[in-house]
Write a structure and sequence with these properties.
The complex is a heterodimer of chains A (407) and B (401). Chain A has 407 residues and is an alpha/beta fold. Chain A has 2 domains: 216 residues, Rossmann fold (3-Layer(aba) Sandwich), CATH 3.40.50; 127 residues, Rossmann fold (3-Layer(aba) Sandwich). Chain A has 14 helices and 14 strands. The two termini of chain A are 27 Å apart. Chain B is of the alpha/beta class and 401 residues long. A 6-stranded mixed β-sheet of chain B has the order 3-10-11-7-6-5, with helices on both faces. Chain B is globular and about 50 Å long. The chains are: A alpha/beta (407), B alpha/beta (401). Chains A and B meet through helix 1, helix 5, helix 6 and helix 7 of A and helix 6, helix 7 and strand 12 of B.
Chain lengths: 407, 401
């Protein structure tokens, strides 16, 4: 009964971007992929350099606030001779945003402190000076109404990007997101399109407290009519931001508080990431590890340990939380026959729970073992550092889970 | 054949004290009424029966300019709306309309008067009592009845229902079920209008029940800060479902509750007053930012078809308003007093309207139900090529493309 899902993948990317050379897109994605892979290996083989995930707790004495991915073998070549440019994730988001605002005068940004203050995570810094107060709008603290206003403006053809200072604040706008954003295209019989992008940081940060460390991607996943994506690297952050802005559907772009300072080299050319495609981070043979956002880095860290122990995990960053890229995932399951899901979402009713159900329904025959899903605990995030660490999945747990799965 | 009188104290006008009429045409002209009044664009100036009450602004004049043609159009449109709502009532009782059905009869003057003051480029957004507003914005009876019965010929292809009427090309943005949620949307429409600098305004309608929603004040704050051409119109029919306004709002002076935003209280049963207020509001909003209009109106039916409407108010009250303030009757008296048409002509018009409504219902009944594949259309704008299964997961229903 396994159904084959035809993910449109590259074709969707093509249709999303008119100005993009498809071959260029594929080439650059492969290049940066290998770059990243190489840089990971280099960092880890060093043994003492902190991984990009800014892990707290165990490596507190070696913490570097700006995780820098440097290649030891780049000492010979200077950075300028390499193609592309290096920047941090929030700068990548800003670059994507700026390029889209340049390209289309209908794009505007609204949110709290996005204008004069420059954005609470500096994603919109400098944009208000460049585009003026009508395109980069500072709103009062009224999420329900400014989300509604963004949706109303989108009904007429504007393309607002609504920033929630923290995704948890979007709960105040849930009615607008669910009823108006998600449903208007359907209930109007196709008359209105709502091309909004709702973005903001979420996830467990560094001792920010329960209300500011919410992992609520799953609250939105049942809303029909919206798409959800989660970015994890500067490369896909810029790509997904651009794709989300160009999409005619409402897109919720989940960023992560701890990933904003990731540094990476991204191509100079314009590129877009497909909104419905998952990213193959590390091909492998033994087990498929599905992850997204910050947990990707925990998984990669665990992957190094696993490689040393002789396992060959295939790591896929699912990126698209709604809809799931069951094509890529399915092909991987058919290859490895074992699935581990590592996510930061809640255990009950989380993205992992839905993904487990989706994979079981569609690829049951290909599974040699039950799907293991490692999610964060069903607790409000505690303030104490040690407790907070144990709320989310740690690399050691991932290693143990893979070992058990592969027995 | 009737004459056009000049005098202000004709015997007929004592019905309409203190209304007086000044006609610009001379008394010696005798034209057959049906062609005259219908094409007559000579100005009539009529005084509204109740003065406007203003908050933080100057009230507009009580004297409203209109033409015989316009008055007859008002009568025709309001009578059509009245007939449509009564027909919807019968259809609901016949179980052809299901779910929720919120009827607008009694409040027609607001929809018609507003439409007379604006263009199709201005936007209107309202809540779920939207059948007549949709009609005023250019919808057809067939589309209304088909959508109410869930058929393909409906304005939302049968997928919206009574509370989700939309007409994008006429600037009608719905049709919303959640109380108050349409007001931020309306301010967003105004924002887009300001962004594209096209000199139009957005009317966001809500009821006295919705006036207590926080998001309304949030949206008003933002609209006032950003100087948006938003006009918030409170259709105060004095009851939020079963709760009277004095039991729900500490301050039932809804036009004043904008505080820093100017407001105007209007007799919502007088179509000319509504027209004047909306015209004033449009000019005001384009220059000075948001303004609140409170339309003092009344609904004869209950909140919806499941509400008899008499448990929280007396039948005497309902019939009292119907006697004294009915908007359609008011225009009928105006038309008769100014000899724009005879009783018989108006009755014939109503008969014709009734026939049109019945025809539309018959035609709507013939329209088919939506195809099962329509379940999955319009969820997304551009699909992602994923196969969508029907509920039993055995059969592919649609390819989401």
């Amino acid at each position: 009964m396994a159904a084959v899902f035809q993910g449109l993948g590259a074709a969707t990317a093509l249709s999303v971007s008119n100005s993009l050379d498809s071959r260029k897109f594929l080439v650059s994605s492969r290049k940066s992929l290998s770059e990243r892979k190489a840089s990971f290996l280099v960092v880890r083989s060093d043994g003492r350099v902190v991984p990009r995930s800014n892990a707290r707790g165990r490596r507190a004495e070696q913490l570097i606030t700006n995780a820098v991915a440097t290649k030891p073998d780049s000492s010979a070549a200077s950075t300028t001779s390499k193609p592309g440019h290096e920047l941090l994730l929030f700068e990548a988001l800003r670059e994507g945003l700026e390029e889209e605002m340049d390209r289309d005068p209908h794009v505007c940004v609204m949110g709290e402190d996005v204008g004069h203050y420059g954005g609470s995570y500096k994603v919109t810094k400098g944009l208000a000076d460049k585009y003026g107060d009508l395109r980069v709008l500072d709103t009062p603290i009224a999420e329900n109404s400014f989300t509604g206003m963004g949706i109303g403006a989108a009904m007429t053809g504007l393309r607002p990007i609504i920033e929630g200072m923290n995704m948890g604040f979007l709960l105040l706008a849930f009615n607008q997101i669910s009823n108006n954003c998600g449903m208007l295209h359907y209930t109007s019989g196709g008359q209105f399109k709502i091309p909004v992008v709702i973005r903001g940081p979420g996830g467990v940060g560094r001792q920010l407290g329960a209300e500011h460390s919410q992992r609520l991607e799953s609250y939105f996943q049942s809303i029909p009519g919206i798409q959800m994506v989660a970015c994890s690297t500067p490369y896909n952050a810029k790509g997904l931001m651009k794709a989300a802005i160009r999409s005619e559907n409402p897109v919720i772009l989940f960023e992560h508080v701890l990933l904003y300072n990731l540094k990476e080299r991204i191509p100079d050319e314009e590129y877009i990431c497909s909104l419905e495609e998952a990213e193959m981070v590390r091909p492998g043979e033994h087990v498929t590890i599905l992850t997204y956002s910050r947990m990707r880095y925990h998984v990669m860290q665990a992957a190094k340990t696993l490689v040393n122990k002789g396992y060959d995990p295939e790591v896929i960053d699912i990126r698209s939380l709604k809809p799931f890229d069951l094509y890529t995932i399915g092909n991987s399951v058919k290859k490895t026959h074992r699935v581990l899901i590592v996510e930061e979402c809640m255990r009950t009713g989380g993205i992992g729970a839905s993904l487990t159900a989706a994979i079981t329904e569609n690829f049951h025959d290909y599974l040699d073992a039950p799907i293991v899903c490692l999610s964060s605990q069903d607790v409000p995030t505690p303030y104490a550092g040690t407790l907070e660490e144990w709320t989310v999945v740690q690399p050691a747990q991932i290693v143990t889970a893979v070992e058990k799965l592969c027995q | 054949m009737a004459l056009a009188h000049l005098t202000s104290s004709s015997s007929r006008s004592n019905l309409l004290k203190p209304i007086f009429a000044a006609l610009s045409s001379t008394p010696s002209l005798r034209r057959p009424i049906s062609s005259a009044a219908a094409g007559d664009s000579s100005t009539l100036t009529i005084e509204t029966s109740v003065p406007f009450t203003a908050h933080q602004c100057e009230a507009p004049s009580r004297l409203v300019d209109t033409t015989p043609e316009e008055l007859l159009t008002f009568f025709r449109n309001m009578a059509t709306m009245r007939r449509m709502e009564i027909a919807a009532d019968s259809l609901y009782k016949a179980k052809l309309i299901r779910g929720f059905c919120h009827l607008y009869d009694g409040q027609e003057a607001v929809a018609v008067g507003m439409e007379a003051a604006i263009t199709k480029k201005d936007s209107i957004i309202t809540a779920y009592r939207d059948h007549c507003t949709y009609l005023a914005r250019g919808g057809t009876l067939l589309e209304v009845f088909s959508e109410l019965m869930g058929r393909q010929a409906g304005c939302s292809r049968g997928k919206g229902g009574s509370m989700h009427f939309y007409k994008k090309e006429a600037g009608f943005y719905g049709g919303h079920g959640i109380v108050g949620a349409q007001v931020p949307l309306g301010c967003g429409l105004a924002f887009a209008q300001k962004y594209s600098k096209d000199g139009t305004v957005a009317f966001a309608l809500y009821g006295d029940g919705a006036a207590n929603q926080g998001q309304l004040f949030e949206a008003l704050n933002i609209a006032a800060l950003w100087d948006l051409p938003a006009i918030l119109v409170c259709e105060n029919n004095h009851y939020g479902m079963g709760t009277a306004e004095w039991r729900a709002a500490k301050s039932p002076a809804y036009y004043k509750r904008g505080d820093y935003a100017p407001g105007l209280k209007v007799d919502g049963m007088d179509v000319l007053a509504v027209k004047q207020a909306c015209k004033f509001a449009k000019e005001h909003a384009l220059k000075n930012g948001p303004i609140i209009l409170e339309m003092d109106t009344y609904r004869y039916h209950g909140h919806s078809m499941s509400d008899p409407g008499s448990t929280y108010r007396t039948r005497d009250e309902i019939s009292g308003v119907r006697q004294e303030r009915d908007p359609v009757e008011r225009v009928r008296k105006l038309v008769l007093s100014h000899d724009l048409a005879t009783e018989k002509e108006l009755k014939d018009m109503e008969k014709e309207i009734r026939k049109k409504v019945d025809e539309a219902i018959a035609q709507a009944k013939e329209s088919p139900m939506p195809d099962p594949s329509e379940l999955f259309t319009n969820v997304y704008v551009k699909g992602f090529g994923v196969e969508a299964f029907g509920p039993d997961r055995k059969e592919v229903r649609a390819l989401l493309l």
